[in-house]
Every structure is written in structure tokens, then in C-alpha cells.
Specification:
Blueprint (H helix, E strand, L loop, with lengths): L8 H22 L9 H13 L2 H25 L10 H20 L4 H21 L9 H15 L6 H28 L5 H22 L1
Helix pairs in contact: 1-5, 1-7, 1-8, 2-3, 3-5, 4-5, 4-8, 6-7
């Protein structure tokens, strides 16, 4: 499947994973150590709060999960296909992600919990977007699946099978993008608090504009 994707997909995967790592580091630093770009740890916290019977925290975590789902649902409605094709609403999805991030900034700065839900929805939208255009091969907001696929790829190489260098490079780009994004997010959060979220907002808008121009040029 990866061999059928255009070459620019690697660059997009790196940038989107950078955005996700950036946002998630701010989530861990500024949202009471709650991840928003992926749900495994958050779902675990939900289970812990069921046992601890902490109602307020339970519903807060539940709404973070639901918000991620809402964002993914919105992306699924817009994209409607797992095949990458110019003309589909990838730019619209990215513009919506940028709007959600932008909306979250004043909410988070004022300490409103709804800001957590808005930014979680943005991450869900992005992850569904990347999953849709790659046929579920690329996930940019978490690394569990990427590390698993990387291990499978290396294991197959040890077994003597042909080594897919492009897939290997793609996985490394996503991992490095997420880690670099995490470092950048932490650095700018310490400098500018939640105002640092303006950077991923601008990145999403830039990618959306670039895609729209590229799509229009290719069609013409």
C-alpha cells in the first residue's frame, strides 16, 4: 500500500506527527498530565477513576475520549474513503483542525476544561485524516502501532524477506517527527504557555493551503 502513495506523503506524515507530538507534550505539561493525541493512557485513567469513584475526574476523562471520537467522526464524514485522491477534503479537515486548535487557546489559557475537549477533537480529526489517506497504514498522533509495524518489518528482514526501505523510512520519519514535536512543544510551552499552540495552528493552515494549491495545479 505504501508503494502506491505519492512521495510527498512522507513529508506530510512527518509534519503531522510533529504537530501531534507538539500538542501532546503541552497536554502532558498543561492538562494535569493527560494525553490528548492518543487514548490508551487516557482510557486507563478512566478505568482507574471508576475504581477510585472520583466522579468529576471520571466525566472529564470520559469527555476527552468522546471528543477524540467526535473529531475522528468529523474527519470520516469529510474524507469518505481510505484511498488517497486529489480533490478530496484533506484541506478542509486541516482547516478545521487549525480552527479547533485556535479555539482551544483562549479556553485553555483561562483554565476552562472545554479547552481539553476541543484540542482532543482536533487530534482525533488529524489521526483519522492520516489513517484515511494512507489506508490505515499511517497513524500520526500516536506511536504504538508505528513501533509495532516497525518491529514486524525488522523481524521479517531477519526471516529473510525483502526489506521495504520506503516503509522503514516512513516509520522513522513519523517517530522522529513526534519526538521532535514533543521537545518543541515543551520548550515553547515553558516560554509562552498555551499561546505556544499558535504554531501548530499555523502549520495546519500552511499544509491545507499547500495541498489546495497543489491539487488545483494538478487538476488544471
Amino acid at each position: 500500500m505504501i508503494s502506491k502513495l505519492p512521495k510527498w506523503v512522507e513529508y506530510g506524515a512527518f509534519i503531522l506527527s510533529f504537530v501531534a507530538g507538539y500538542i501532546n507534550s503541552i497536554g502532558l505539561l498543561g492538562f494535569d498530565h493527560k494525553a490528548v493525541s492518543h487514548l490508551s493512557g487516557t482510557a486507563t485513567l478512566l478505568g482507574i477513576n471508576i475504581i477510585n469513584a472520583t466522579t468529576g475526574s471520571f466525566f472529564h476523562i470520559l469527555l476527552i475520549l468522546v471528543s477524540f471520537l467526535v473529531g475522528a467522526t468529523l474527519s470520516g464524514f469529510l474524507i469518505r474513503s481510505s484511498a488517497l485522491k486529489l480533490g478530496r477534503h484533506y484541506d478542509t479537515a486541516l482547516f478545521l483542525e487549525a480552527i479547533l486548535i485556535l479555539i482551544s487557546i483562549p479556553l485553555l489559557s483561562r483554565g476552562y476544561l472545554i479547552g481539553h475537549y476541543v484540542i482532543s477533537a482536533a487530534c482525533g480529526l488529524q489521526n483519522a485524516l492520516a489513517t484515511s489517506y494512507s489506508g490505515a497504514i499511517i497513524r500520526t498522533t500516536h506511536l504504538t502501532g508505528i513501533f509495532t509495524d516497525l518491529g514486524i518489518l525488522i523481524g521479517a528482514k531477519f526471516r529473510g524477506e525483502a526489506f521495504d526501505k520506503r516503509k522503514f523510512l516512513l516509520f522513522l520519519l513519523i517517530i522522529s517527527g513526534f519526538i521532535i514535536g514533543g521537545s518543541s512543544g515543551a520548550y515553547f510551552y515553558y516560554q509562552f504557555s498555551f499561546q505556544s499552540l499558535f504554531l501548530p495552528t499555523l502549520i495546519c493552515i500552511s499544509i491545507a493551503c499547500a495541498y489546495r494549491l497543489y491539487s488545483a495545479k494538478s487538476v488544471s
